[in-house]
């Protein structure tokens, strides 16, 4: 249930790609009609993805009468590029609105810093940034201004993950000792805009999607990772650019537990599942073994279609992540942990704003800062302060993969850093 507010958050989304279409914009459209967010502006590099969003049949049916302001304008030639227009979009927001960062990983830092400089709360798709030092800088800058930065690790809001967190921390599973995680995205990603940015120097499957499961093990157990090694398999995208298309990673945790992480862009487009993903954790107690297994690809729902706009006649369906379903209101409403995650981040920003409402600025800032610390302490929403293990893992992984899987240690004292292990 959203906090009732007379001051909905104006929103600027930076990035008009896949995640904006599949999760972010429909979630924000619904929150707009609930009164939690105000006008929505979307900024992209050019007009092409914005036109696709504006004309998407699913949105016309699900959110009748709703629209967004497009920057650049929809009638701009798609070949004309606007690399700095996002700065204008952010600057045009009134203070304490929300900037949604949905651009490739290597651009997160610049957009987040611009948002904070203009006194905006931030929702950023995972990972936050690619280096721990940048995460720390963002944490300090946001706290100094009383602004909320939430990292959209939506698997945290899967009810199975929340249940597992509670049970693990109550001792029901014992200690995590060894496990494996897998997330293989569809082959068609190679033909998408991924081929323009998902190149060796920028990212890899472990960094892009493996981080979901590293974060999830940390979220469930509270254990910190202390060593990372990642080996990549190179391949060419259709445009000829070279990227790591497959990765195999290993993460060692502070209690000595091992997690194997397999990722890639290559799940068959015609196969029953739209991807292949799962988590298995073996645990130990006093003279007993424990087990936590989540099959995140198949959730017990199968569909066989006579009409198949998705291109497949038979699908495993996951209604738990994100679906648009009938409800009592107009159109359709989003359900699933993808929506729950966006809603929780918007709720957090509204809560921070409410903490300082109507007070002199010095008192308002102190109250907003205390609200931020309370969110950090709870540890449900990922923030720069409470989830920096993710930036350390990503930084270690990027160092490891460029050296063919060399082991990279994570040290937490005297201050968090990564270092190469002896050969």
Overall mean pLDDT stands at: 95
Rg over alpha carbons:
21 Å
Within CATH, the superfamily of the largest domain carries the name: NAD(P)-binding Rossmann-like Domain
Helical content, roughly?
A: 25-40%
The CATH architecture classification of the largest domain is 3-Layer(aba) Sandwich
Which structural class is indicated by helix and strand composition? alpha/beta
- Name the strands of the widest sheet in spatial order: 12-11-7-10-9-8-17-18
Number of contiguous helices: 12
Q: How many E strands?
A: 18
Distance between the termini: 53 Å
Number of domains: 2
Low-pLDDT parts are none
Question: Could you spell the SSE succession in H and E letters?
Answer: EHEHHEHEHEHEHEHHEEEEEEEEEHHHEE
Which fold name fills CATH's third level, the topology of the largest domain? Rossmann fold
Question: Main beta sheet: strand number and arrangement?
Answer: 8 strands, mixed
Would you state the CATH class of the largest domain? Alpha Beta
The rough form would be described as: globular
Strand proportion, as a percent range, falls in: 25-35%
List the helices and strands and how they pair.
Layout: E1 9-14, H1 18-33, E2 37-43, H2 48-54, H3 57-62, E3 69-71, H4 85-91, E4 98-101, H5 108-117, E5 121-125, H6 132-145, E6 149-152, H7 159-169, E7 175-186, H8 194-197, H9 205-221, E8 225-236, E9 242-253, E10 258-267, E11 276-285, E12 288-295, E13 302-304, E14 314-316, E15 323-326, E16 332-335, H10 337-356, H11 361-378, H12 389-401, E17 408-411, E18 417-420
Parallel strand pairs: 1-2, 1-4, 2-3, 4-5, 5-6, 7-10
Antiparallel strand pairs: 7-11, 8-9, 8-17, 9-10, 11-12, 13-14, 15-16, 17-18
Helix pairs in contact: 1-10, 5-6, 7-9, 9-12, 10-11
């Amino acid at each position: 249930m959203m906090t009732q507010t007379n001051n909905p958050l104006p929103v600027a989304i930076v990035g008009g790609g896949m995640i904006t279409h599949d999760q972010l914009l429909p979630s924000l459209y619904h929150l707009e009609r609930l009164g939690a967010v105000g006008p929505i502006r979307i900024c992209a590099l050019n007009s092409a993805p914005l036109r696709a969003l504006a004309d998407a049949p699913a949105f016309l049916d699900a959110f009748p009468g709703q629209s967004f302001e497009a920057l650049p304008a929809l009638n701009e030639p798609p070949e004309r590029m606007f690399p700095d227009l996002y700065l204008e979009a952010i600057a045009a927001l009134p203070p304490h609105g929300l900037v949604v960062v949905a651009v490739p990983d290597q651009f997160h830092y610049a957009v987040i810093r611009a948002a904070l400089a203009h006194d905006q709360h931030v929702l950023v798709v995972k990972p936050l940034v690619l280096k721990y030092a940048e995460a720390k800088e963002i944490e300090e800058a946001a706290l100094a201004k009383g602004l909320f930065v939430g990292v959209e690790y939506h698997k945290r809001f899967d009810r199975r993950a929340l249940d597992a967190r509670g049970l693990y921390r109550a001792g029901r599973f014992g200690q995590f000792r060894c496990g494996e995680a897998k997330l293989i995205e569809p082959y068609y990603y190679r033909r998408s805009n991924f081929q323009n940015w998902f190149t060796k120097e920028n990212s890899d499957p472990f960094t892009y999607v493996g981080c979901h499961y590293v974060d999830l093990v940390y979220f469930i157990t509270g254990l910190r990772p202390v060593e990372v090694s990642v080996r990549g398999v190179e391949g060419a995208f259709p445009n000829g650019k070279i990227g790591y298309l497959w990765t195999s990673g290993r993460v060692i945790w502070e209690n000595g537990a091992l997690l194997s992480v397999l990722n890639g862009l290559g799940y068959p487009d015609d196969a029953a599942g739209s991807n292949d993903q799962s988590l298995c954790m073996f645990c130990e107690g006093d003279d007993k073994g424990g087990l936590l297994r989540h099959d995140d690809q198949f959730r017990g729902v199968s569909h066989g279609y006579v009409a198949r706009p998705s291109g497949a006649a038979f699908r495993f369906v996951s209604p738990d992540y994100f679906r648009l379903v009938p409800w009592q209101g107009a159109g359709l409403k989003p359900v699933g942990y993808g929506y729950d995650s966006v809603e929780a981040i918007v709720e957090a920003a509204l809560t921070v704003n409410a903490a300082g409402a109507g007070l002199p600025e010095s008192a308002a800032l102190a109250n907003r800062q205390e609200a931020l610390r309370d969110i950090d302490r709870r540890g449900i929403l990922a923030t720069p302060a409470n989830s920096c293990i993710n930036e350390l893992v990503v930084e270690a992984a990027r160092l490891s993969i460029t050296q063919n899987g060399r082991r990279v240690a994570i040290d937490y004292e005297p201050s968090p850093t990564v270092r190469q292990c002896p050969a």
